[in-house]
Amino acid sequence: MTGKWSDPKTGTIAAISVAVGVAVLLIKVAAWQITGSVALFSDALESIVNVAASAAALVAIRFSLRPADANHPYGHHKAEYFSVVLEGVFIVIAAVAILREAYAAFLSPRMLDAPVEGLPVSAIASVINGAWSWYLIREGRRRRFPALVADGKHLFTDVVTSVGVIVGLIAAYLTGIALLDPLLAAIVAVNILWAGWRLIRESLGGLMDEAVPDDILAEIRQIISTNAEGAIEAHDLRTRIAGRATFIDFHLVVAGTMPVSESHDICDRIEKALRSTVPDAMITIHVEPEDKAKHEGVVVL
Q: Can you give the pLDDT at residue 301?
């Protein structure tokens, strides 16, 4: 793909994430088959969700990388948020399925078949997931891709629950308490339900065009004030975040006698300074004559 928003490496990372998810799923299925543990079955079931969510993120990221066109003049950045919502829905579905299996196991509890052989296999899957989740979160934040960050956070939740399951199953084996297995499965279900809710809540905030955080807003105001020498004031500053793009618009008041070229130079200076601090900024500046001054907002000194 071409255009300002093209980022082939991010698409490659998303594709690798699907492959990693499939590999981890196969390892977890092997661990479940070796032990017969309903908790490990639940862990494997969550990995199915991981694969589906990674696939959805891959499609969304590739779509969001498309450059702006006639029908989408501001780009396709919000496509990522839909994949995050879908990932949250997948998590909820998995949690319900896990609770169903846990309930059945509560009614007919049984000890693990071969914990010594099966649990190390599950541990290998957790190590792979842990390393990949760290990489996804780091790259997602650095590249400003919400779908990658969400995928990484989901995987990290999977790591935490997997470690808890392994520790709990060791305890079940040592104590002989078979009910610990379905109990752990139920705890896993509740934990991923909470993770799903957080993902959906965060993505809805993006779909609703939330403003930048207060600290970033203060920095934007300072940049405008510092680089607007020659103007009278700036006001009506508004911001919103859409995926990795940050939209900034405001009114810049200049003297009515100022040449257009001079006011244009001021705007260029401000835009350059903003883009050096706010990655992927989409900036709109409305230049106005001095009779439009409000003496509020970002006052240029």
A: 42
Cα separation, 14 vs 93, in Å, equals 22
Map residue 253 onto helix, strand or coil: strand
Q: What is the pLDDT of residues 225-242, one digit of tens each?
A: 889 888 988 988 999 877
Q: How far apart are the first and last CA of the chain?
A: 44
**Tens of pLDDT, residues 114-138:** 667 778 888 898 899 899 999 988 8
Contact call for residues 122 and 40 (beta carbons, < 8 A): yes
Q: Does the global pTM surpass 0.90? A: no
The pLDDT value given to residue 208? 65
Query: In whole angstroms, what is the distance from residue 267 CA to residue 245 CA?
Result: 20
**d(Cα 241, Cα 205) in Å, to the nearest integer?**
9
What contacts 233, CB < 8 A, 6 or more positions away? 252, 253, 293, 294, 295, 297, 298, 299, 300
Q: pLDDT tens digit string along 11-32?
A: 788 788 888 889 988 998 898 8
**Angle ∠(280,284,287) on CA atoms, nearest 5:** 150
Angle at 283 between CA 282 and CA 286, to 5 degrees: 150
CB distance 220 to 241 below 8 Å: no
Distance CA 188, CA 191 (A): 5
Residue type, 243: G
